Amino acid sequence: MKLPRRQFLHLAAGAAALPAVSRIARARAYPSRPVRFLVPFPAGGPADVLARLYGQKLSQRWNQPVVVENRVGATGTIGTEAVVRAPPDGYTLLFTADLPITMAPALLKLRYDPQRDLAPVAVLAKNDQLVVVHPSTGIRSLADLIGAAKAKPGALTFASGGKASPAHLCGEMLKQQANIDMTHVPYSGAAPAMNAVLAGDVTMFCAPIPLGMAHLKAGKIYALGVTGTAPSPPLPDLAPVSALYPGLVISPWLGLFAPVATPPVVTQLVRDELKKAYADPDLQQKLAILALEPAWLSGAELSQRIEDDTAKWMDLFKSAGAEAE
């Protein structure tokens, strides 16, 4: 039987709309099973701790487990790539610092494009760095450090958690702006880099504030400044390095991403739930204890931040003459 043209077109349009309706229905049922936060850094670090705090809050709201899995290696790029390749259904999400999103592309050859292959959900906190030295160096100020570096070009060393990590960027920026020469000593992560400072094996390290706080209070390291635009709340009397070198600002952020093809209704649902958790006074208090500063970015503002930061770090390494590996 031949259908009238109008009826045929109506049925065809309805059939075409079925996939979209199905996607919306699945999104409304989300999450119907455990959600995985993949953290591309070791357990106990700022990204891991933050993922577990938010995972606990979302588990309570969703009545579904939020499982945190650490997939480490290659300055966070191995775990990040795993999320890029994961099914875009909202059940595997990337909880990360900005290292594999904006920093690694400046110096490493990646098998993913952060701006093309990932959908940014939200930034939830920031983690300024603490410029530290071992007390045995006799260095007690940034001016002391600059003076010592100029007196013996290349003799002073700075540790990092790996190439293109925040500490590497910090050291390179200080070299450029102060017109000094120091030798970069990369380690396999921030914790080993901190151990190197504690042992007196290196001169300087730009450490994540949560990692350095206990050692600072114990007198095992000496702090020269922080790398944010203002003093950090846990260290209100410590001046930012940018007071002396205005362009030297390293303020890494931590946030959540999804594979790029994840349905927007799912990413928006996750973003809305994160925003509710972000406003929870209990969570805010826990962040303060951990020396992590709350910071919220989403939507176009976050996309622009990623674009700006990526360009900034690429320009830094280009001017330093470094080549991608």
What distinguishing features does this structure have?
single chain; 325 residues; alpha/beta; 6-stranded mixed β-sheet; 5-stranded mixed β-sheet; 12 helices; 45% helix; globular
What does this structure look like?
The chain has 325 residues and is α/β, with parallel strands linked by helices. Helix content is 45%, strand content 18%. The protein contains twelve helices and eleven strands. The chain has helices spanning 5-28, 46-62, 77-84, 99-103, 114-117, 142-151, 166-178, 190-198, 209-217, 264-278, 281-289, 299-320; strands spanning 35-39, 66-70, 92-97, 118-126, 129-133, 157-160, 183-186, 204-208, 222-226, 253-259, 293-297. The model has no long low-confidence stretch (mean pLDDT 89).
Oligomer: single chain
Q: Write down the overall geometry.
A: globular
Helix- and strand-based class? alpha/beta
**Total beta-strand segments:** 11
SSE string, helices as H and strands as E: HEHEHEHHEEHEHEHEHEEHHEH
User: Using only CA atoms, what is the Rg?
Assistant: 23 Å
Uncertain residue segments:
none
Q: In which range does the helix fraction lie?
A: 40-55%
What fraction of the residues are assigned to beta strands by DSSP? 15-25%
Spatial sequence of strands, sheet with the most strands? 2-1-3-10-4-11
Mean of pLDDT = 89
Distance between the termini: 65 Å
Number of helices: 12
Biggest sheet architecture: 6 strands, mixed
